[in-house]
Amino acid sequence: MPGVADRVVIVTGAGGGLGREYARLLASEGALVVVNDLGGARDGTGEGHNMADTVVAEIRAAGGTAVANYDSVATTEGAQSLVKTALDAFGAIHGVVNNAGILRDMSFPKMTPEAFEAVQRVHLFGAFNVTHAAWGHFREQGYGRVVMATSTSGLYGNFGQANYGAAKLGLVGLMNTLALEGRKYDIKVNSVAPMAATRMTADIAPAEMLEKLPPEQVAPVIGHLVSEECEDTGLILVVGGGSVQRVQLFAGKPVLFSQVPSIDEVRENWSRITDMSDAQPGVNPAG
Length: 287
Prior knowledge:
By secondary structure, the protein is α/β, with parallel strands linked by helices. The protein has two domains: 8-248, Rossmann fold (3-Layer(aba) Sandwich); 250-287, no CATH class. The protein is 40% helix and 16% strand. It contains ten helices and ten strands. It has helices at 17-28, 50-61, 76-90, 113-141, 152-156, 162-182, 207-210, 219-225, 263-268, 270-273; strands at 8-11, 32-36, 65-69, 95-98, 144-149, 187-194, 236-240, 243-247, 250-251, 280-281. Strand 2, helix 2 (50-61) and strand 3 form a beta-alpha-beta unit. The radius of gyration is 20 Å and the shape is globular.
């Protein structure tokens, strides 16, 4: 069974937490892994090589193959250098796990433009930058696997995470289009919202809850999504604590007006407009 054996996979933000588990599991299955991590703090400040180097050392000690990369995915140049690391070390690139992220939580009235943009730069722009740098190679070889790290904060919202939630749902929008564009090239693009105990969630969820959410429970789903056997694309999965759940957009039954309605007519039909009792999976009317 091919799985991920001999496939070259980049895992961003792989110096700890979920990324570390993804990289270690993929390497144990025979993947050639590029462990990317800037080595900074949770808020994105600082940098260093120790985190990525430590994970590479762990993989090699277990008999796997990996190289480290310390570039920032938040820049085009960093992403291009990251993909070049894969090409220089292994001669190819087959998969990308866009896991890198930072947190700068604060309530919306206190949210600064700098805090909002910094989170977009790492999560949303980072995924764009790395995937874009790899996309041409995927198309040329007729194969590629991409995983976006979305979040329930983006899917459902979470107090104090307007910047994070916006970036995470933005990744779903990016996935939706790339899933369409990648189809004829066997490029599969999916999203995972992980629920796990990491330094990112250490003070966000109760300790008793985090004890039930070890990051290694998410990694096997990532392993499948970057494997040759994965034929699905455009999926959103919430994963953690032994649970794997698909999430999908649904649309209610349309309310039709024969002419431009008045505000009163909209108001009178509001209960029908908002009724989801006959909801069906949503589709893009533009095709």
